[in-house]
Design a protein that fits this description.
By secondary structure, the chain is an alpha+beta fold. Helix content is 32%, strand content 15%. The chain has one domain. The strands form five sheets. It has a seven-stranded antiparallel sheet. It has a seven-stranded antiparallel sheet with strand order 7-4-3-11-10-2-21, with helices on one face. Bound molecules: glycine.
Length: 584
């Protein structure tokens, strides 16, 4: 657990912070929060040079592809939720699509059984990447700076290399067996035949050349030019399906975000092909009917209602949602507070509802090793990005001499209706594989506003747990008054309908709370830590206003509390390498 940080500010602390979390980092002129400190610094530099939050988000996206190659990417895809200073909200979907040669049964053998590893550890696992086109769409539509300026830091970091910290080196060591199997990946990440360690310099000369070509020619270098051709050739040589035509067909979608209201806050999140916004809004709508603050953080009463809400939401998530170009998503119904009230009425206040009694037996799957970053500029433009290769280092394959790590996002499709994916998630036919289709996601880049101003930017990696991690951070701040760092650090629980267990991070429940819940019919699975959530809150470190008698929480870290001009960043430091970069 965290060591309580030294209290740097004494004047404005009404009561000492109770939680074992460091103080959030404060800024007044903008902020970038990401999983890698060099990428956060790149974004903060763009803000200092006069770029807006979208410019910074584009630069961070390219930088993370270099300094966080396990999830940052140009060989994968993702989502960007935007809330502009003028009040407009929008969403860019640049998630991967299935190649034209993909089929619903491509991961099954002749007997209709799933072939182990085919959807995760093969060239057939690779979807057509969207990140480069997505970042360019963001820049052209909402940014202000040239591609050359925004890509220069990433090109420099790839060409000159960067020194690995403990978190950077740790994940490479963890993934070294997979990386060693691919000669191109081995040459970059295991140049001396073994994993690089802390203090080593990672140089990615091929990636620098690829980024330079994209900088010069734009996305055409990838989607119509030599880089796409090189990926298609590597895919074909490795038994994959991606062709040059798949690249030329790829399009970014600009979609309307999912929006809902929770206890005075307006929530803006990811629409299908993500399940994230729908699931978060459906859960918040159900929980709105309970006094979670009075129940208390992770009390038996709160865990009961949260689990029962999540159980029902994941039935809908796994069975009713998919790519909006292929299936009709009942978004209006699922996010309707009246529907939530109906679900709430079904919740037995004393007993767990067995999952087997809810819906057809179909569960979901997804890679957990995505990454989240947030940017807020001084004008109030807010950007929340979640993008991914699916697993750490995706399919553990680098395409020839492009230096691009390829995703294994195809595993997010339903390979066989009713069979669990890598997250144990069982999904339905709406998410079946089809040519040109995007797999259902849980990625939930989210922005909350209050009284017309950005209040919170939040999101996380974590596969099917992304929804719960993001949800819990919101509940921790709005209902339990935690500051942004405490909300991110607090141990989490997760329930996804099937399997019918509550997953627990270490220390998520006390022994007696657990016993109370067992008495109500709940089963538990102790798990490791999940997610690397990233958050920015404005005005004060906590959303909960101080009480009139001054016995509230920490108000600010010595900065004037001017809503919209003061912001506080919280980051999940579990990877040891992330950071909050404030602009003052
Ligand atoms: N691959 C993680 C997600 O899309 O949710």
């Amino acid at each position: 657990m965290r060591v309580l940080a030294a209290l740097l500010c004494t004047t404005l602390i009404a009561t000492a912070a109770q939680a074992a979390a460091p103080e959030p980092v404060a800024g007044s002129g903008g902020m970038v929060v990401s999983a890698q400190h060099l990428a956060s610094d790149v974004g903060a530099d763009i803000l200092r040079k006069g770029g807006n939050a979208v410019d910074a988000a584009v630069a961070v996206g390219y930088a993370l592809a270099v300094v966080y190659p396990q999830a940052g990417n140009i060989g994968g895809g993702g989502f960007m939720t935007l809330r502009l200073a003028d009040g407009r909200t929008t969403f860019l979907d640049f998630r991967e699509k299935a190649p034209q040669a993909a089929t619903a049964t491509m991961y099954q053998d002749a007997a209709g059984k799933i072939v182990p590893g085919l959807s995760t550890d093969s060239w057939k696992a690779v979807g057509v990447p969207g990140t480069v086109m997505g970042l360019e769409a963001a820049r052209v539509r909402y940014g202000t700076m040239s591609r050359a300026v925004l890509m220069a830091p990433a090109i420099r970091l790839a060409r000159d290399g960067f020194v690995l910290g403990q978190g950077d080196a740790g994940v490479m060591a963890l993934e070294s067996a997979g990386l060693a199997r691919d000669p191109a990946a081995r040459a970059i990440f295991l140049p001396r035949g073994k994993a690089l360690t802390k203090g080593d310099r990672l140089v990615q000369a091929d990636l620098a050349a690829t980024l330079t070509a994209i900088g010069d020619q734009g996305p055409d270098a990838l989607y119509r030019g030599s880089i796409g051709a090189a990926i298609a050739a590597a895919s074909q040589a490795g038994g994959g399906l991606i062709t040059r035509e798949d690249f030329s067909r790829y399009q970014v979608r600009e979609l309307k975000p999912i929006e809902c209201d929770y206890r005075g806050y307006h929530v803006i999140s990811a629409p299908p092909p993500s399940s994230g916004g729908v699931a978060i809004c459906e859960t918040l709508n159900i929980l709105q009917g309970y006094d979670l603050a009075a129940m208390g953080f992770h009390s038996a009463a709160e865990v009961h209602v949260m689990t029962e809400a999540l159980r029902r939401v994941y039935v809908d998530r796994n069975n009713k949602l998919g790519d909006p170009d292929f299936v009709s998503n009942p978004v209006a119904q699922l996010t309707d507070p009246a529907y939530a009230a109906k679900l709430r009425a079904q919740i037995d206040p004393e007993r767990a509802t067995p999952s087997s009694t809810l819906g057809p037996p179909q569960a979901p799957t997804e890679g957990r090793n995505t990454t989240q970053y947030d940017v807020l500029d001084a004008q109030g433009n807010a950007v929340s990005v979640t993008y991914t290769l699916n697993d750490w280092f995706g399919a553990h394959r680098v395409a020839g001499r492009t230096g691009i790590v390829m995703n294994n996002e195809m595993d997010d499709f339903t390979s066989l209706v009713g069979a669990p994916n890598m997250f144990g998630l069982i999904q339905g036919a709406n998410n079946a594989i089809a040519p040109g289709k995007t797999p259902l996601s849980s990625m939930s880049p989210t922005i909350l506003t209050k009284d017309g101003k950005v209040a919170l930017i939040i999101g996380s990696p974590g596969g099917s747990r992304i929804i719960t991690i993001t949800l819990e951070a919101i509940l921790n701040m709005i209902d339990h008054g935690m500051d942004v760092q405490e909300a991110i650090d607090a141990p989490r629980l997760h329930h996804q309908w099937l399997p019918d267990v509550i997953y627990l991070e270490p220390f998520a429940l006390s022994a007696d709370t657990r016993r109370l819940l067992e008495g109500r019919g709940y089963a538990f699975k102790d798990d490791e830590l999940w997610g690397i959530a990233e958050g920015i809150v404005t005005g004060a470190p906590t959303l909960k206003p101080p009480t009139a008698d001054g016995q509230g929480r920490v108000l600010s870290l010595g900065l004037p509390v001017l809503a919209g001009a003061t912001m506080f960043g919280g980051h999940d430091v579990r990877d040891g390498a992330g950071s909050v970069a404030p602009v003052n």
